[in-house]
Amino acid sequence: MDLIKPGLEPELDPGFAPAVLANRAFRSLVERSGAAAPLKIALERGGGLRSVYETTVLEPDHPEAAKNLRYVERLVKFLLWQRGGWKITIAGPKPVADYISQVYSPSGKRAFDYEFMGGVYGHTFTVEHCAYEDAPEPNEAAVPVGRHLEGCRIGFDAGASDRKVAAVIDGQPVFSEEVPWDPRNQSDPEYHYSHIRDAFRRAAEHMPRVDAIGVSSAGIYIDNRVRVASLFRGVPKELFEEKIAPLYINLGKEMGVPLEVANDGDVTALAGSMSLGVNRVLGIAMGSSEAVGYVDAQGNITGWLNELAFAPVDYRPDAPADEWSGDIGCGVQYFSQQAVIRLAPAAGLSLKEGSMPGDKLAEVQEYMKAGDERAAAIFRTIGRFLGYGVAHYADFYDLEHVLILGRVTSGQGGQIVLDYAREVLNREFPELSGITINLPDEKSRRVGQAVAAASLPKI
Fold this sequence. Notes:
By secondary structure, the protein is of the alpha/beta class. The protein has helices at about 20-35, 65-85, 95-105, 110-120, 190-205, 235-245, 245-255, 265-275, 335-345, 355-370, 375-395, 410-430, 440-455, and strands at about 35-45, 50-60, 85-90, 125-130, 150-160, 160-170, 170-180, 210-215, 220, 225-230, 260-265, 280-285, 290-295, 400-405, 435-440. Strands 7-6-5-8-11 form a 5-stranded mixed sheet. Helix 8 (about 265-275) packs across helix 13. The mean pLDDT is about 95.
């Protein structure tokens, strides 16, 4: 694929090659070629649900048909982590399907995705081919979520560098607190139990009673059971199944109230929809990782994974790698505190050795408070990333509003990120000018996720 230099270059990362520009250039090439072949990518997930994405590629005998492979592989990668799936059907040219089958295999470049998705859905990950006209039909099922505000509720947001909790009475927060913790490096399940139990207890002290508890947490949860979550990746597998999988179910029983768990991305979008009073919202929480969720035109969630921390936004061959999946150019390196830390050396900032990532972010934000131009450059760069990222996301979501949240957006840096993202959209993508990017007020930015989480259970 041809990489396109952005018109508004991120100053601390000049090699950035936006996925949205490369994809548009490829589609333009196909359109001009006179040799367009239709292609559908079908992704089947749990319960027979299925998403279908349609595009075009070059006919296999076209002299530049090799460009099809990178284009479709990056689409598959994005769609897997946006929609989820254990079976991929490529309906179109067979050489493309053969390549995807090779790459997404136990010995292929995307072995991590092969194993991860197979584990999530309890099936061996499979890539199949069929003719375009035989493509499977989509089968989606959006569902309503949250928005229950009555009573005395606890909202808990489990981040990777801090845990947030709020006590909420009839929709109004009466107490909120952030406490640093380090769950990803802990092998003892009791560490997780004790920290979460303590957060619940501290919130409960500020209400006459507790009617329900809502939890926002990174990972995949089915019927309130933990299926996969990076927060618990330090726990050995045998202890995970015994102690971590039923963690929230057990805590709900211990507290004696309804408890509901949702992916932090979905709660981010819910927080945005509730605070703005609108739908068609993409919520992007920039914290220890990137958490994304989506509320559709009817105010429902889609049941998609929306784990865009693993979805590519930068196509350059030497893009930074994700520490867990090993893939390059994925959202976590551009829209989280990892991005801040990664960009600090380029800005000329030397952060304290050995400190936790959340503390390093706080250090940069202190420089920002002091008016340090080096810190401002970091947030300007992230803003440019975000502008191109939102344009890319708009190719996969029906978008009208984007809400950015999370610790990275706290303080003066958040407004810089917002301003520079808006500039990219307005100047580079005027056709997307109807998409608004919003930043909630400072208090909502930091604890809005926990308050939205509190609305999850129905009582």
